[in-house]
Amino acid sequence: MIRISKAFLETACMAENNSVELERMNDSIIIKKVEHFSKVTLEGIFAGYEGDYKTENFDWGKPVGKEEW
């Protein structure tokens, strides 16, 4: 978790609980607001792939925090 002051968020046109993307640039970390977040699925990643791959379901337990499964 990263804590950022409300005043700083407001100057960056951001608010609490916005989705963000982190990027490393040399010795800095860039935090960017994500406007549209799309779910990524294993099937979507391999769509159009003609090789042989198999998937299996695995029970990771109940979500903790705000992640989605």
List keywords for this structure.
69 residues, alpha+beta, two-stranded antiparallel sheet
Task: Please provide the ordered H/E string of secondary-structure elements.
Answer: HEEH
The count of β-strands is: 2
Describe the biggest sheet?
Answer: 2 strands, antiparallel
Choose one word for the global shape. elongated
Radius of gyration: 17 Å
Structural class computed from helices and strand pairing? alpha+beta
Helix content class? 10-25%
Strand content: 15-25%
First-residue to last-residue Cα separation: 20 Å
Residue windows where pLDDT falls under 50 for at least 5 positions? none
Order of strands in the sheet with most strands? 1-2
Number of helices: 2
Whole-number mean pLDDT = 82
Descriptive overview:
- The protein is of the alpha+beta class.
- It has a domain at 6-45.
- Helices cover 14% and strands 17% of the residues.
- The protein is built from 2 helices and 2 strands, in the order αββα.
- It has a two-stranded antiparallel ribbon.
